[in-house]
Design goal:
By secondary structure, the chain is an alpha/beta fold. 18% of the residues lie in helices and 27% in strands. The protein contains five helices and 17 strands. The strands form five sheets. A six-stranded mixed beta sheet has the order 7-8-9-10-16-15, with helices on one face.
């Protein structure tokens, strides 16, 4: 379904929150609530809520209580959907269980019908290499008869790596992971995990063969390298039907 096929009543207002980790600039819930009430938005979180890293095959993490509080506060003001990033996929089971107990909806390699003929899915960032058997649902999702929105943490999955979402029948992909390239010079990011130096996908809107990908630079900085010319952001997307 193309944007032109959306009915007048089907305008979609979405806000994407990325890289909300310990040490992140905490979004003002009261401001999000004002926006949500005014625009009727849904909140989409494309992974990396918890802060952690793997060292010598052992996952290290710090307290994540503020993340749980944040999720519940988001759910109290607007429908909130989460797909897992690489941090969640490496996190201990106890952390994921706590996240599952919040009031948000988790989309981990599955999709739902958000409204009539509008579908929302979440692609896990669990594997560094794409495994076909794990993503049978993705083929079913892209065949859905409607407008399809996918939360996919890793932007390299758009064109650089399988499942190469740019060539699939998916209208809109929300992504992050790249930290905006960490240091930006002339609009170009310097480095991104999964892409290396001078990465292609770090921010903004990118168009594929079928649909588009919107990348958030995220809110946090969990590396010792500072963010330079790379302001944190919360992305707001309005999908307008053609009158």
């Amino acid at each position: 379904m193309s944007q032109e096929d959306l009915s007048r009543e089907s305008d979609i207002n979405l806000s994407m929150i990325k890289k909300y980790e310990i040490g992140a600039r905490i979004p003002k819930i009261d401001r999000l609530e004002v926006i949500a009430n005014a625009l009727g938005i849904s909140l989409c979180i494309a992974g990396d809520l918890v802060n952690g890293y793997v060292r010598h095959r052992h996952y290290r993490h710090v307290s994540y209580g503020n993340t749980l509080d944040f999720l519940n506060e988001c759910a109290a003001i607007a429908p909130t959907y989460l797909s897992y990033g690489n941090h969640e996929c490496a996190a201990p089971a106890v952390q994921l269980k706590d996240i599952e107990k919040t009031d948000i909806m988790i989309l981990d390699n599955r999709y739902i019908e958000l409204t009539d003929s509008i579908y929302l899915g979440g692609l896990s960032a669990a594997a560094y290499s794409y495994q076909t058997s794990e993503y049978i649902w993705l083929s079913k999702f892209q065949k859905s008869d409607g407008y399809k929105i996918l939360l996919s943490h890793r932007p390299e999955y758009f064109m650089l790596q399988d499942p190469k979402l740019a060539y699939r029948s998916i209208d809109l992909v929300f992504s992050g992971h790249a930290h905006g390239g960490q240091i930006r010079v002339g609009g170009q990011g310097l480095y991104a995990p999964g892409q290396g130096f001078f990465p292609k996908y770090t921010a903004g809107i990118h168009t594929g063969s079928y649909g588009s990908m919107v990348i958030s630079r995220g809110l946090s900085n969990t590396t010792w390298i500072p963010r330079i010319n790379n302001c944190p952001e919360i992305v707001y997307v309005c999908i307008k039907s053609v009158k």
